[in-house]
Amino acid sequence: MQKVEKQELFKQIMGNYPTGVTILTTTDEGGTPLGLTVNSFASVSLEPLMLLWSIDHRVSSLKEFTEGGKFAVHVLAGEQQELCKTFASKVEDRFSACEWKLSDNKLPIIEGAFGVFECKTFKTIEAGDHTVLIGEVTDIQIDPEKEPMLYHRRVFGPVPQEFYLSEVNS
Q1: Could you tell me if residue 12 is inside a domain?
Q2: Which among 10, 100, 126, 170 counts the fewest CB atoms within 10 Å?
Q3: Quick one: pLDDT at residue 170?
Q4: Would you list the DSSP string of 140-153?
Q5: Cβ neighbours of residue 144 closer than 8 Å, sequence gap 6 or more
Q6: 169 pLDDT higher than 60
Q7: Number of domains observed in the structure of the chain
């Protein structure tokens, strides 16, 4: 099998793997907020609390995320599709599209997310054309009234109600 064919199959399988959707935020040296949409996100450890995500080496804010020492992970709520699109786009001032504030840890926190993890960078690992960032969680927020966003087959939105019907019938 050729390399290009393997890459296409890889993308097809990964695109069919349902995930949540996050926005990662940090600031540059001058305090300007930076953010991007990410779905490569997973838990790592409960003791201490740790998580990971990865960033493409072509992203313009790569240095700020990999060398900044801290970041926030926003697990998006189902109704935040427009925000998801904005932070996935080439729009420069992405934060003008949302309400946000700086946390006590000096991280930009976007309002309306299902949950937010504030992290200090524990480790970065070069992996192919991405860098994996492992963060130790320093603060957590959750809005139990919200449902998280789901991404599947290049479509994102709230978790379908049919998903919960299987719980009732089991």
Answers
A1: no
A2: 170
A3: 55
A4: EEE-TTS-BEEEET
A5: none
A6: no
A7: 1
User: What are the beta bridge partners of residue 152?
Assistant: 155
Instruction: Report if residue 16 sits inside a domain.
Output: no
The reply to whether 14 falls in a domain is: no
Average pLDDT over residues 110-116: 97
CA 100 centroid distance within chain:
16
Residue-wise pLDDT for 14-60, tens only, equals: 888 888 999 999 999 999 999 999 989 999 999 999 999 999 999 99
Residue type, 65: F
In this structure, is residue 84 part of a structural domain?
A: yes
CA distance 31 to 41: 25
pTM for this entry: 0.91
Which residues form the domain of 136?
A: 21-169
Which secondary-structure segment (H or E) carries 64? helix 62-67
Give the whole-angstrom CA distance, residue 52 versus residue 165.
Answer: 31
- CB 26, CB 36: distance < 8 Å: no
Task: Report the CATH number at residue 87.
Answer: 2.30.110.10
